[in-house]
Amino acid sequence: MAVMTYIDAINAALSEEMERDPNVFIIGEDVGKMGGAFKATKGLLEKFGSERVIDSPLAEGAIISSSIGAAMAGMRPVPEIQFVDFITPAMDALTQQAAKLRYRSAGTQTCPMTVRVCYGGGVGGGLYHSQSNTSWFIHCPGLVVVAPSTPYDAKGMLKAAIRNDDPVMFFEHKKLYRSIKEEVPQEDYTVPLLKAAVRRKGTDLTAISYGYTLQLTLQAAEQMKQKHGAEVEVIDLRTLSPLDTDTFLESVSKTSRAVVVHEDNRTLGIGAEVSAVIAEQAFDCLDAPILRITAPDVPLLPAAAELEHFCTLSVEKVIVAMERTLDH
Fold first, then answer.
1. Burial, 19: exposed, middle or buried (Cβ in 10 Å; 0-12, 13-18, 19+)?
2. Which one of 151, 190, 287, 319 has the lowest number of neighbouring Cβ atoms within 10 Å?
3. How many degrees, rounded to 5, is the angle at CA 155 between CA 171 and CA 79?
4. Contact (CB, 8 A) for 75 and 49
């Protein structure tokens, strides 16, 4: 075991998979000589050379389109989109080509491509370096959408994604990169892509989240125990599409209360889908309305510090929602 940050875990996963499989390569803006905007690919150019660590033009559409072609030819590309805010030039390739390839070919062709995407706010990045936009892709069948919350999962799920035969959107919250550390195995391992995780056991309330807000939710759950003696069960979705509904439905059937926490906009965010599933399949178990704690429906995120703070989630905001649910 080695103590790793989230960004270290990403780098280790990339290095190990490139060593394991010569068909794996990286392409993106500044991923080579610079080592990536956040240094996720640091040292890989020196280790694997410029034919497998490719500095691309500033052209997200070209990055993804060329990766799809390479995947169809037998390679396993890992393109990086430096910020999700700039992914729109690649939307046609992702949603019309990659996502539909297996279906339209009657299963005769696949697209084993893992798109690493940096997302999230709270770092003063302003409007075009702070968006989440995960819901854009969970609306598109054919794409697997994952958002790990821990270094252990970041490494294991990235390795699993690269080995997967379908296109995976791999969301990495920038606030997680260096804010948390944990022990991570140095030997080979993977984490299942389609299974949620119970991060904290509880009996009074189910809190459902993913990514950076999962860490806020865990902190809020601990404070709820200290302040009110309430035991909050915390579910980490990990994969946003397809959803592991069984895990959170089982939890809600036990606790009878649910809150959903996410950084994306409120309307048609993942919280709306999770709430609908609970209402349809576990309504008789509920003792209180389902609450969503989300970003507001505004273009995210403002550059002004006060407005950014207003729009982003915090432990305090999550606690308020948990208290409302328990008091109902």
1. exposed
2. 287
3. 50
4. no
Of 129, 262, 309, 328, the catalytic one is 129
Structure tokens at 77: 């590309």
State which fold the 197-327 domain adopts. Answer: Rossmann fold (3.40.50)
Cβ neighbour number for residue 283 with a 10 Å cutoff:
10
- pLDDT tens figures, 3-12: 999 999 999 9
Asked whether the whole model's pTM tops 0.85, one would answer: yes
State the DSSP string of 41-72. Answer: TTTHHHHH-TTTEEEPPS-HHHHHHHHHHHHH
Residue limits of CATH 3.40.50.970 in the chain: 2-184
Q: Is 129 a catalytic residue?
A: yes
pLDDT band at 228 (very low <50, low <70, confident <90, very high): very high
Helix (H, G, I), strand (E, B) or coil at 321: helix
pLDDT at residue number 300? 81
Quickly state the pLDDT bin for 262 (edges 50, 70, 90): very high
Q: Cis omega before residue 301 (within 30°)?
A: yes
Nearest to 31 by CA among 4, 5, 6, 50: 50
Q: What is the pLDDT of residues 73-107, one digit of tens each?
A: 999 999 999 999 999 999 999 999 999 999 999 99
Residues 2-184: name the CATH superfamily.
Answer: Thiamin diphosphate (ThDP)-binding fold, Pyr/PP domains (3.40.50.970)
